[in-house]
Amino acid sequence: MNVVSLVAVIFIAALPFNSNADSANYKDGFTHLVKDPKVLSSDEFNGVEDMPGTVALYFDGDRLHRKVPKAVSGLVEDLLTMKLVSAGQMKVAECADCRKTKVLVLRDAIRVETPASSREQFTELGKTVGADAFMMWEAKETDGEFNLALRMVDAEHGSIIWAKEYSKEISQNDVDLGYSQIEWRLSVGTWGLGAVRTATEGGSDATLSGVTLISLERKMMPWDNDGISYSFGYKFFKNTSGAELFDLTGHSLNARVYLDMGRFFERVPYSLYFGVGNLQYNDSRGFLLDFGVEIPFSSHGYMSIGAVQVAGDQITWEAEPGFYDASEFGGIAYDFTIGINF
Fold first, then answer.
1. Side-chain half-sphere of 55: how many Cα atoms within 13 Å?
2. Domain membership of residue 65 as a residue range
3. What is the pTM of this model?
């Protein structure tokens, strides 16, 4: 072995390895990023013409001077594979050859050859693994910002079908908290809760048939507990009809648990939720339970349909001629909400 070859072997052996601490930081950061619900969400490929039936993942970065440890690259590819499979929009072909790298030590240079170094090899690789397209990916980290670049490339013609870049700043505090996604949610909705104000001396009773609510919620998804997320929120509610006879105003603090059914069943894009809380309205206090189904309709929007139960209590209304001053508010009713994530 000549001197150049010996130096090259030592150089290559030393390149991919960082300290265990750095590897752990990369692992946590890219896990947080890839598990973000916005990455490869169900609507990412809307409007894409000629969607491939089968794709294979292909690392498109510098394989000699790796920007992240090799083990972390394998983790990122595994997470991307699981996301694509869960989405159910295309099949994912296993491509062991896509991971192979040949390093040629020449007399005065080092040359790296990948399985698809030429257009012909790229097309032939697609035929070999049965892929209509390749999901080319590259990951890098710069000053705490983790980046993931994706390109879907047609295996036969080499044309780009779809491309997207994701980035996320991950602090050590985020890692310590253990959440892959923390987001705020703002929503408006209605509860079907009502009340009846009885008329005096044979008149017609007045009915309150629902209240309008505005909610602000903080939702957190643990990165090491797929499919389960938690939220804490504040709700303000008030009746917008029958204000001359009903003057209901209240607020609530509540907590919810969400179970993402898409993690367990393919092509099921909804979540089940169950929540508890306490509420105060007019001169009364109560306890609420709510449960239902949440359905996303875009990467930032959602709607939920469910039920809410509030323990009934007597409310004293403002005096109005022809009606008694007190009636009961509460019970079980529908809960409909539409909101956005930010």
1. 28
2. 3-177
3. 0.60
